[in-house]
Write a structure and sequence with these properties.
The chain has seven helices and 19 strands. Strands 1, 2, 5, 6, 7, 8 and 19 form a seven-stranded mixed beta sheet that branches. Helix 6 links the parallel strand 12 and strand 13. Helix 1 packs parallel to helix 2, helix 1 packs parallel to helix 7 and helix 5 runs parallel beside helix 6. It is elongated, with a radius of gyration of 21 Å.
């Protein structure tokens, strides 16, 4: 296959990648964006979105991504449906090989490949994903006002999500497979002293129970198994938040870029610049703190502006 050269190449089509595409296309950089495995990113598995500014009514995650994609195309982005299987960042121009066999070279690369929530891997979890099963309390907690929910996990994320959910839910059960938490001590103290939170130790999720009869599937409860006694207990609740971590999609870059212990790309302070000049990272692939569509879009904008400056200086 012949090489295809572009000034700017964007990997990933979530909020970060599409915003970067809009800005770089409007700067007349004629970017191409490679979609990857999940066009639209994590927003495509999010149903109701109520916290993206500009929409007074609840919108759907997939719809929002479709709108962003149309906008990016309308201002001059070329979309490619393919998957990058290898990246050479130690050569100029950078070289990327796709699953189709196509090779692309580029002067500047924006990596916005996102991160994936780790899931429990049980069938009932998949069945109710987006309908009572979530991996983001700040995205979906608002829908559980006055209801009972469970949080699965024992690290900082799980404890933070449990504490956050007390702002909305009537009762929060934290379910952990061990008898101690990995979270920071200060967070643990806040958790233990909170009247709305109950901790269930040495326990794993056996099944998520629900109702699929109505117009939308809904979670009605959870079946838990004590790993020491094998006792099964059932609890009535309306929401399950899985908080066992995220995995950033950075495998194809190997050790070419500086990454943290969890695999997130490290960017310079107040910048999306990575350890390689001309390579920029935006969105959840470099953000393990906020992980919101709006913050991803913000860093996508930053990356495009930094790319424009980088290319002008070359």
């Amino acid at each position: 296959m012949p090489n295809k050269h572009k000034k700017v190449l964007i990997l990933g089509s979530g909020a970060a990648g599409l915003t970067a595409a809009i800005y770089s296309a409007r700067a007349n950089l004629k970017p191409i964006l490679i979609h990857g495995m999940q066009p639209g990113g994590q927003m495509t598995i999010t149903t109701d979105v109520e916290n993206y500014p500009g929409f007074p009514d609840v919108i759907q995650g997939p719809w929002l991504m479709e709108q962003m994609q149309s906008q990016a195309e309308n201002v001059g982005t070329k979309m490619i449906t393919d998957t990058v299987v290898s990246a050479k960042l130690n050569v100029r121009p950078f070289e990327l090989v796709c699953d189709s066999g196509d090779t692309y070279t580029t002067d500047a690369l924006i990596i916005s490949t996102g991160a994936q929530a780790k899931w429990l891997g049980i069938d009932s979890e998949k069945k109710y994903q987006g309908f009572g099963v979530s991996a983001c309390a700040t995205c979906d907690g608002f829908f559980y006002r006055g209801k009972e929910v469970a949080v699965i996990g024992g690290g900082n994320t799980a404890v933070e999500e449990a504490l956050y959910l007390t702002n909305h839910a009537e009762k929060v059960k934290l379910i952990h497979r061990r008898d101690t938490l990995r979270a920071e001590k200060l967070l643990q103290e806040r958790l233990f002293s909170h009247p709305k939170i109950e901790i269930i130790w040495n326990t794993v999720v056996d099944e998520i129970m629900g109702n699929t009869e109505g117009p939308m599937p809904e979670v009605t409860g959870i079946s838990l198994k004590n790993i020491k006694t094998n006792e099964i207990t059932q609890h009535n609740l309306q929401g399950v938040f899985v908080a066992i971590g995220h995995t950033p999609n950075t495998e194809i870059f190997g050790d070419q870029l500086d990454k943290d212990a969890e695999g997130y790309i490290i960017t310079k302070p107040d910048s999306t610049a990575t350890s390689i000049p001309g390579v920029f990272a935006a969105g959840d692939v470099q953000d393990n703190v906020y992980r919101q569509a709006i913050t991803a879009a913000g860093t996508g904008c930053m990356a495009a502006l930094e790319v424009e400056k980088f290319i002008a200086e070359q």
